[in-house]
Fold each of these.
Amino acid sequence: MSRAPRGPLYAKMAGIFTLCAVGGPALMYYVTPDPDTLFSRFSPELQKQNLENRDRRKAEYEDFRSKMIEYSKSDKPIWVAAAEAQDKARLEIQERALREDKARKEAKRGMREEMERGG
């Protein structure tokens, strides 16, 4: 029982691998439009809206990036550190809302007392 030579099989596999490894990214490069070309195809309203929101999006990205860098410095996984930061921010918002509500009630009470004294 003799075996068929495996050289042609390996050559065919190497050719298919090369075609996929080089041809796939080349096809994506060819098919994907240039960002400037894509922007020029937008309607004038979308171009205007995109330009107006560019600074906001850039600031949000920088904020996100700085938070991820801060979270990565922790010993904990990033998602745990992010969840803890969200919990802390939520508590701060609740505390601020309680303080504002208390100040609002105090101001109302002060106005009511003033009305009673003046009336």
Amino acid sequence: MNSALEYTGGVPYDLLKPVLERATSEQLYQLEHHNPYLIGDTDALWEFHCKKDFRGQSREEMESWRDLYLVNS
């Protein structure tokens, strides 16, 4: 993914999902940084990254997969 896709211009998550599913955790984080509206929809993508990179880790009550990933990375 190249940096030209940092700001999405408000493209709906459903249209971006195929691209986001192929993003690395760093790319996903950068896309969310530039497009905070995506954060509400990306928890399943963070779950994938957590289970891949931090096997055996469990979330605290009320902790999102994104939060778990960021705390452990």
Amino acid sequence: MASNAPIVVFHYPRSPFSSRVLSYLALRGISYDQCIQPQILPRPDLARLGIRYRRIPLLAIGRDVYLDSPMILQRLERLEAEKPPFASQVTPSQRGVERLLASYTLDTNLFLNIVKVLLPTTPLISNEAFLKDRADMVGGGPNLNFAELIQTTRPDAIVAVKNAIEFLETTLLADGRQWLAKTETPSLADIESVWSLSWLFSTPGAVPEEHISAQLFPNVFAWVDRFQKAVIAAEKSLRTINTLSGAQVTDLLSKAASDHTADVVEEKDPLVQASRLYKGQVVQLWPTDNGSRHKTIGKLVGLTSKEITIETTEGEVSVRVHAPREGFHVNAVGPEKANLS
């Protein structure tokens, strides 16, 4: 895809997962526009594109829309920009640290525990619409008391978050290094690790200071502060960020080109063989961990061991939706949904 393809981030303010992507864009010097979304469903801007996926952020590069922040970062690493990709600036062992830290942050209960520590200190804990929306996302059903679950498990969550911070304090940051992978500037290791702690530390009243503080963990707090300042400085070098309406984004993407490099359905893939999937088939795509009730429908155009790509069929304009293979599933839809006439 041409390097001048429009880049649009769909997010809402203070979304912790979005902060990973926005920090990356700033530190790589990649300019972008944004389409601000409601914190809870519905999101009509995405419905215009035929996308039912309910998690934030999403990233459009031309007519291709990428789901899930790890995949978004992987795609941005392949993008031409003023600054070289982070992977080209570190050694293989440092890349290993990045991957392990990403897994530690995303594939464990760390983020959920941070939510349990933070949420009861905010007005959202009493916002019925927000709580109902998040209960829907985690699949708890109408009888799940999300607020009660968060509040009753908060004490254990405080201990778990404290232990995670202590881990960084007494290992990677113990030798006084500025950045986790011992790089001269922030790297993916920092981006992959700092976002959830930055969200916690920057939320007024959220940090239980008798257990977690700059006095107890000076290296971690200094690292988070250092990263935040580096991002703010980098943002100043970007062009002005335009905030686009859903209609503007739809019009923009309708005129943009698509990236066809992922248009491969691997015939020997176990899922392709077991489900008899084929290119052009009408399928539905959804995440398998949370938000799984919201399935995006389209034509299958790519399926490999790393990526699933479908072309939406239900919006005002068709876009190509890319999702990582891990954590997402795709299958054929019934005849009643496959009628695209």
Amino acid sequence: MQEPGTPAVATAHARDTPSRDALVRVEDLTMAFGSKVIQRDLDFEILPGEVLALAGGSGCGKSTLLRHLIGLQEPAKGRVLYGGQDLYTVDEEARTALLQSFGVMFQAGALWSSMTVGENVMLPMQVLGGMDAERREQEARFKLALVGLAGSFDAEPATLSGGMRKRAAIARALALDPPLLFLDEPSAGLDPLTSAHLDELILHLRDDLGTTVVMVSHELESIFALADRLLFLDAQTKTMTALGPPKELRRNGPEEVQRFLRRGATPVGKEDPA
């Protein structure tokens, strides 16, 4: 039987690559708010061309881990390495370069209501891309077309449906052509058909563009449809207890992971903010 707190690493599969090829390495990471430890001893890699799902029950720290991965919250202990560089100890110039190597879609989209959809997508290019106005518009229109929003460049965010806002947020995350995307609950609050269309978009990004995707999700249907590997965070032991293909973990993972993958998780609206 699996010892509590010991990660169950499922057997290797076709997408696994040597660790030297990892886009990101997380080493001995502890996350905490003051004296309250959220998760400890996290060790894992994000591999090129995969979809990695971050999952777990209520209060396990999925969103907190995402904030650590994108530079918004400094670890209490451990390192987040991009190409061997620690995101939290490099100098400002190197940190800026690392931040441009990934895009982020936040759960609610986080589009600026005072800007059009096109202006939202162009914003990263204006701040970091060094492009002239004509090139920014061309790139923004292309990214919107890529996510199925070709006619929304001049639209106001408030006029978009929930699924369209998420697609627009993904277009903005793709603005600088990053090899890595972080998606926070991409399917949350969407109807099943819209969620399925968004899943198809994520698969297109991975399979056709080679984009690596890390997604926080509680939606089992999306996890099984998209994820090459699942990282399970346990709220009780406060550490990762499984890492591997979701279907394999459902069959052979630790008992609590099998239970989670068979029965579902706490609805996102009731999840602890951590």
